[in-house]
Design a protein that fits this description.
By secondary structure, the chain is an alpha+beta fold. Among the domains are: about 100 residues, no CATH class; about 120 residues, no CATH class; about 70 residues. It is built from 20 helices and ten strands. The longest helix has about 30 residues. The relative contact order is 0.07.
Length: about 500
């Protein structure tokens, strides 16, 4: 089949499915598309039919179970159709039928398949199949249909459990898949030998051991002994020379033969290396590392409950720069909208240029009129009679100009304003005051502790909390105790965390 034909097939299958199940929305189709293990919508119609029955339309839990069951069963069916009595998906009238077929296919795995999937078959009879998964893939394969974290998509839990003990999956061939005991996970720790049984729902069960056959129980113990022996052999000498482990040994007062049971975890506690001894877990750090861990602890605590939840005086940690920057635009708006509320009237510099020009022109005309009147008064008396009317006219116009000049002077005074430079200088001065006295400003604005939180300098605040002490109480989540041990001149601080 060429690319064009393949594309047409995919589109046709999607179109047919949408026609038949027109009540499903875009998100439903996206969800179903993710569950189809084929690359050509081979199972889309069947999936839509199961989904449309309401299997996954109830609670979030029901939808999650539907997704898990489909992913596990349909992926296996698609990959290994030869292991199923019916190889046509449409022969399975329900997801439940496919799950049953899937369980049967799991129990009928060949030795070759066991080896290929990364698991050790340690026991099998008419009732039980017991395997030890040695890879995450195998753990998912044999843990399919359960809620075990070791069979989850991510491999972190499987790797962690496998590192510290033996993990066995006990499959009961005679129980239906809806029985929580149809699959049992047994985890037995190397250090201390503690064993825990989990049913398919991931609940611990205490009475399952009594139900096991003596032969099966012996197999479990032998498997554990063999694997622990290999584990101890591989670990010989690994811990010696590590000053952190030496500090822990010194604190716990352990014997030499007990040192090998200390296991360094792959994860850390706020950056501090973590070690397990039996059921106990300890974080071990230098003084500097412990301080850094304490900082991270406080930082995470702030993320959870906020700075106000720690009960410290927030006024001490208000960031003046942050307050000033946050309020700068508001101050600018206040001053430009109503400068008279902030600036001194006597400091006005600017005025209306048109009024000024008109005033200047009127003043110049008035001078001209008065000079002309003086000239006429100083002429020969013979012309006095003739010039009297002109003098009278000029004096009247001069009187009118004086009135106009007085009015223009008042208008000019009213038009005076502060320059943008004056306003900007005042704004910067105002903002500088906010920066130097942020708490007073916020209080004047009616703000309290809850509002202060917005303006806290988090680094300064964290440092303030750290400086108060309480490192041991915070880092030792089990008992709040900080233990000190000196190894080769270096102090190590130990915190029990479980």
């Amino acid at each position: 089949m060429n690319i064009v034909e393949q594309t047409l097939l995919i589109e046709s299958r999607m179109s047919d499915a949408k026609k038949k199940f027109g009540n499903l929305n875009m998100y439903d189709w996206q969800f179903l598309d993710r569950l189809d293990p084929s690359d050509n919508h081979k199972y889309l119609m069947w999936l839509a039919g199961e989904y449309d029955k309401g299997t996954a339309k109830g609670t979030d839990t029901e939808q999650e179970k539907f997704e898990i069951d489909v992913k596990e069963t349909l992926k296996h069916f698609h990959r290994y159709p030869e292991k199923y009595a019916e190889r046509d998906i449409y022969q399975y009238k329900s997801l439940k039928d496919l799950v049953k077929a899937f369980q049967q296919a799991q129990l009928n795995i060949s030795k070759k398949e066991l080896k290929r999937t990364g698991a050790k078959k340690v026991y099998e009879d008419d009732s039980y199949l017991v395997v030890v998964p040695t890879t995450h893939e195998a753990s998912c394969f044999y843990g399919a249909g359960t809620k075990w974290c070791t069979a989850a998509e991510k491999d972190g839990h499987f790797n962690n459990y496998s590192k510290k003990g033996v993990l066995l999956y006990i499959l009961n061939k005679n129980l239906p898949e809806d029985d929580p005991l149809y699959k049992i996970a047994l985890y037995k720790q190397y250090a201390g030998g503690k064993e825990t049984y989990y049913d398919a729902t991931d609940k611990t069960v205490s009475d399952i051991k009594a139900a096991l056959t003596p032969e099966l129980e012996r197999t479990v113990q032998v498997t554990f002994d063999v694997m622990k022996g290999a584990w101890k052999e591989a670990r010989k000498g690994l811990n010696y020379g590590d000053p952190r482990i030496e500090a822990l040994v010194q604190m716990l007062d352990l014997e030499d033969e007990e040192v090998d049971e200390i296991i360094e975890e792959e994860w850390t506690q706020y950056g501090m290396p973590v070690f397990q001894y039996g059921d106990w877990e300890y974080a071990v750090a230098t003084d500097e590392e412990a301080d850094e861990a304490h900082w991270e602890y406080v930082e995470n605590l702030i993320d959870d409950i906020g700075v106000s939840g720690l009960g410290f005086n927030l006024e001490w940690y208000v960031d003046g720069d942050q307050v000033a920057d946050d309020w700068h635009s508001a101050v600018e708006e206040w001053v430009y909208d109503d400068p008279g509320n902030y600036l001194d009237e006597d400091d006005k510099e600017e005025f209306d240029e048109d009024i000024f020009n008109e005033l200047t022109e009127a003043q110049e005309k008035l001078v001209e009129y008065k000079e002309r009147v003086d000239e006429l008064y100083n002429k020969d008396s013979s012309s006095w009679a003739r010039d009297e009317k002109e003098i009278e006219r000029l004096e009247e116009e001069a009187d009118e100009l004086e009135i106009k000049i007085e009015e223009l002077e008042e208008e000019l005074e009213d038009s005076r304003d502060w320059s943008d430079e004056q306003k900007d200088n005042y704004i910067e001065s105002y903002v500088d005051d906010i920066r130097s006295e942020p708490v007073s400003f916020l209080q004047d604005m009616g703000y309290g502790d809850e509002e202060f939180e917005k303006y806290i300098n988090q680094d300064d605040f964290i440092q303030g909390v750290v400086d108060e002490g309480y490192r041991g109480e915070n880092l030792a989540s089990y008992d709040g105790h900080e233990h000190e041990e000196q190894i080769n001149g270096t102090w190590y601080f130990i915190y029990r965390i479980n």
